[in-house]
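Predicting holo structure, flavin-adenine dinucleotide bound.
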Amino acid sequence: MKTDFDIIVAGGSVAGLLAAREIAESGCTVKVLEDDLEIGLPERCDGLVSLKGLEAIGMAPTSNVVQNRIRRAIISSPKGETVDVDAERQKVLVLDRSRFDRELAGLASRSGAEVEVGQRVTAHKEVDSAVQVETQQTSYTAKWMINATGYTALPRSSKSTLPAAKYEVYGDWFDRETIEIYFDQKRSPGYFTWVIPMSDDTAKVGVAGWGGNQFRLLDEFVKQHRGVAYKKIAAQIVVGGPLDRFVSGRVISVGDAAGQAKPTTGGGIYSGGLGGLLAGRCVGESVKSGDPAAVARYEEAWRKIFAGEFKTLLRLRRILDRLENDQIDKMFKAVASSGILEKISLESDFDHHSMAILRALGLNNVFKIASIVASDLLEGLPRLGRSSE
Ligand SMILES: Cc1cc2nc3c(=O)[nH]c(=O)nc-3n(C[C@H](O)[C@H](O)[C@H](O)COP(=O)(O)OP(=O)(O)OC[C@H]3O[C@@H](n4cnc5c(N)ncnc54)[C@H](O)[C@@H]3O)c2cc1C
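Done. Tokens:
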């Protein structure tokens, strides 16, 4: 069947634009339909990514998009116990996400993709061996549709997204190269408050959690630190883990729309971006070769890299959801006196950190922590310590 495009991409953010770049580079025709009136805005993401993750999605750390480099994290317990993690080796960058998305849109269109803003996809249906995509203004046909519309595509009933508020703040209390993380299960259950500096006197400050009023919490936090919020935004952090299937009929889900953000922190630039890149590559190959099975290789490739990691992160998420403040305080004490932080900072990989953290904890510490928190919480975690010690 003759179609308007080989592939339509719904959603013009990191996953959709990376998919479009790959599709266009394969020589197929592709159109990106983005609901917002400007690529990259409103900016919800904090843009924290490792240099390795950025390179894996084929992007360079240009001065146009890199705002800052992070070397350290200070993590605080509810009672104010702190652990200090050296992040020098992880090479963590803070990106200007709006500029990053616009750079991606430029790369996709230079490769031949059509990118159109102000085009909301309202419906799609499969007709013969094609998919018909409706927007508020018009309709298009394509051989495949990529759904890169973010968290809005996820089932509403499940606990797949955490409500968040994110501010940009002027302040004088932070250290430019240090991220601050504050745990408090009463104020931000299941998550934390974070401070990510952009410069010596500006930072992205946010909070997320099950329930509560994130804007009120953040107003209090900023006031306590005598900061001034000059930008405020509401957002949803994807923490429910990957969908059971990424491909359904002629529709391929990528990025947050496929649950490809880390269930612990919701970070998705690398894992969701790579989802978009792999999907774009495989669907391009499928259209070129006429082999529909090539599309399934996208899902296989993504799961090969992330399935094990995400399974562990989902278990850690369930623990985080159930921990009480005093358990967190005790864990911080155990961690601070164990000497494992050095190991974590040396061994941990920012993009695949779950196994490194568990391995760094080691047998004695796993047991120490298990005796502190309810023992059933640790059931099911990989038995790393047992074999490594
Ligand atoms: C507060 C916050 C902070 C974060 N910080 C980090 C971080 O520091 N590091 C990190 O790695 N990740 C972070 N993330 C996660 C990261 O932002 C996402 O994982 C990533 O942006 C997902 O990209 P995506 O392309 O899948 O979806 P999104 O970025 O959500 O983009 C979806 C796009 O689809 C468009 N759209 C929606 N519906 C339609 C429609 N019907 N038709 C057409 N277009 C549509 C939207 O306008 C949007 O542009 C953060 C998330 C939040 C909420």
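The CA atoms of residues 54 and 214 lie 30 Å apart.
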